[in-house]
Amino acid sequence: MPTPREQLEVRCLEDKENLPECVQKTNVHKRKREPLQPTGSISDHYPKKAFATQKEFYSMSNRPLGYCLIINNYNFERTSLGNRRGTDKDKDDLTRVFENMFFKVEVQDDLQASDMQNVIKELAERDHSQMDAFVCCILSHGEKGSVLGIDGKPVPIRELTQPFAECHTLVNKPKLFFIQACQGNEAQQGVWMADGQENTREEGTFEKVSHTAATHGVPKDADFLIGIATVEHYKSFRCTKHGSIYIQELCKQLESGLHWKEDIHSILTMVNRIVSSKILQGCKQMPEVHYTLTKTLVLPMKQAS
């Protein structure tokens, strides 16, 4: 009679013979593991926009492209601030550059504070529906958050920009402001730099600043860009012969950068870098840019004939 062990071996053998053929031939201990195959690519599960930078550009197809207002305040004889010699060079260069960018340029000279507000209000009430942008350049003395009329009275930057935020025909269109004026009465000091980093010396005079500084900021509305010659609390620099350092560099970089189809942010970054590298009567100047642009802005430029 078989032992219990022998009986168990016979029973196991019989069970194996009764298994399906496909199971009998499978050796689970020797089978190779196959790598898991994905059921689809990552891009099948996520929107394509998550994997590519989608640049949107402001339309710049209308001609004229828009209005460019230049307020040029030179004559401050009725105040203690002094006349702004050299400002006409800035005015002429800005006029040339923005006309070459297809803007319709309008120049207003020597405006009192109330006149500046009236000119701004009138222009904001115009129909801009057949235009793609608006530019305002203000050349004057200034103080923290404001620019001055030739009567020495301050106009907050906010009051100059707000009418255009409320202009329905400029909705979703870029509104650019470039301001050459002091934003305080301090002079920026330079810092030590590593060997090989060069500075450029310039001679000239600082813009004058009023001492009744108000604190008004720049707009937070969409599609604005505010370029200011200097950061808050500090003076800006103007050469009495060749114009202001900031405006002259702005004109130069607009002409060269737009020729290569660079966007406005890249151009103004270059302006900041070059202006801040100069030594101005032993001091420095750091321009500032505030913007709420919602698209990439590349302005057109006429090709040189």
Automatic annotation (TrEMBL):
GO terms for biological process: apoptotic process; positive regulation of apoptotic process; protein maturation; proteolysis. It catalyses: Strict requirement for Asp at position P1 and has a preferred cleavage sequence of (Leu/Asp/Val)-Glu-Thr-Asp-|-(Gly/Ser/Ala). It is an enzyme of class 3 (hydrolase). Pfam families: Peptidase_C14. The active site is at residues 141, 182. It comes from the Eukaryota. PROSITE patterns: CASPASE_CYS, CASPASE_P10, CASPASE_P20. Keywords: Apoptosis, Cytoplasm, Hydrolase, Nucleus, Phosphoprotein, Protease, Repeat, Thiol protease, Zymogen. One of its GO terms (cellular component) is nucleus. Residues 214-301 form the Caspase family p10 domain. Its EC number is 3.4.22.61. Belongs to the peptidase C14A family. This is Caspase-8. It comes from Sinocyclocheilus anshuiensis. The gene is LOC107688860.
